[in-house]
Recover the amino acids of this structure.
């Protein structure tokens, strides 16, 4: 996972360098035009300098930088138009306006504000074309600027649509996961409360014949109550909905049964449980989440790597944490599935794991295997 993030980081860095390189070349062209032209064309070069600075600051001041550039560009166009100076639109200035407009379309909320600012950008660009050049050249410049603006608006709108669709999908997955957690919370509380009731009934029976034996029973009731409260606190932190009733809790035997069933229908799974781990070591909610993470990981293997030779899974204890790792080798994915994208199942799993104070990572290992790693603290 860290390797993938490093690659994405460098791709972004190189694209930024390339963009500023192109803007710098455009600014040099503007300087050449300003030197060879008389009059106020130097203002266009100054707008180009301001535009590059605005692009550099666009992530911190997205709307502010675009508004300043709109004002400078309009002011320059009006000054040149009313003074009768003929020139041409600035290349760096136009490029900066288009880059800033693309960022606004993608990120500014609400969408209505982004649309208004994008429409204002078209007005500014048209003012550039007709306010700084002669009538014959103005039509040609207007056509080119409109084509560039339309391309940027189309690309930005498509990226915004994809971004909104993914946000909605992630929200749906998280909501479904919280509903599932609510059901499991019902099961956990029922499990602990049942134990408390049984202990209380036993204590009442014992009290009639042996009062001294009541103290250990009361201690057991207090312990069960504390465990119930702890389980509730861990899960309620991520719940925003209600609903109840589901199947009983999960055990380590269920994890083995899950891998055995997967091995019978898909790639063979080698599953190992390390020393120091049993059903009493892990809290019920951790066992349930381990089962869900293992199920999601094996499902991803079947969905995205159907030709995987085998799957290696292990559950081990390291001091105060327990770690589940699932990795598969020789996992050339089916291209028909790869084009569909994905990752929403991992979003839900990460939500579950983080609710219990752990974290989940997924990505390629240095050996070339795809690995999902879930870590839980032992309380």
């Amino acid at each position: 996972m860290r390797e993938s993030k490093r690659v994405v980081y460098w791709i972004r860095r190189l694209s930024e360098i390339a963009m500023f390189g192109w803007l710098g070349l455009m600014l040099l062209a503007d300087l050449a035009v300003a030197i060879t032209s008389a009059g106020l064309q130097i203002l266009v070069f100054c707008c180009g300098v301001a535009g590059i600075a605005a692009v550099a600051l666009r992530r911190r001041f997205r709307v502010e930088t675009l508004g300043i550039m709109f004002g400078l560009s309009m002011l320059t166009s009006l000054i040149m138009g009313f003074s009768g100076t003929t020139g041409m639109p600035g290349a760096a200035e136009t490029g900066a306006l288009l880059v800033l407009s693309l960022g606004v379309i993608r990120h500014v909320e609400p969408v209505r504000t982004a649309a208004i600012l994008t429409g204002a950008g078209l007005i500014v660009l048209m003012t550039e074309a007709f306010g700084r050049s002669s009538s014959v050249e103005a039509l040609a410049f207007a056509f080119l600027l409109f084509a560039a603006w339309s391309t940027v608006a189309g690309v930005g709108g498509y990226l915004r649509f994809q971004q909104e669709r993914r946000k909605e999908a992630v929200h749906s997955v998280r909501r479904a996961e919280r509903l599932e957690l609510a059901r499991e919370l019902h099961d956990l509380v029922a499990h602990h409360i049942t134990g408390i009731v049984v202990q209380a009934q036993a204590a009442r029976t014992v009290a009639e014949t042996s009062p001294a034996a009541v103290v250990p029973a009361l201690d057991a009731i207090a312990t069960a109550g504390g465990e119930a409260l702890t389980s509730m606190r861990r899960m309620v932190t991520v719940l925003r909905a209600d609903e109840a009733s589901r199947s009983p809790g999960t055990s380590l035997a269920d994890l083995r049964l899950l891998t055995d069933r997967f091995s019978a229908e898909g790639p063979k799974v080698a599953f190992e449980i390390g020393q120091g781990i049993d059903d009493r070591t892990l809290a019920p909610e951790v066992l349930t989440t381990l089962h869900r993470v293992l199920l999601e990981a094996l499902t991803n293997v079947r969905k995205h790597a159907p030709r995987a030779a085998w799957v290696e899974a292990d559950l081990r204890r390291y001091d105060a944490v327990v770690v589940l790792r699932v990795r598969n080798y020789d996992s050339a994915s089916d291209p028909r599935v790869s084009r569909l994208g994905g990752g929403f199942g991992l979003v839900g799993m990460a939500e579950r794991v983080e609710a219990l104070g752990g974290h989940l990572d997924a990505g390629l290992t240095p050996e070339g295997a795809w690995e999902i790693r879930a870590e839980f603290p032992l309380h």
Observations:
- The chain has eleven helices and five strands.
- The two ends are 27 Å apart (CA to CA).
- Confidence is low (pLDDT under 50) at residues 240-249, 332-342.
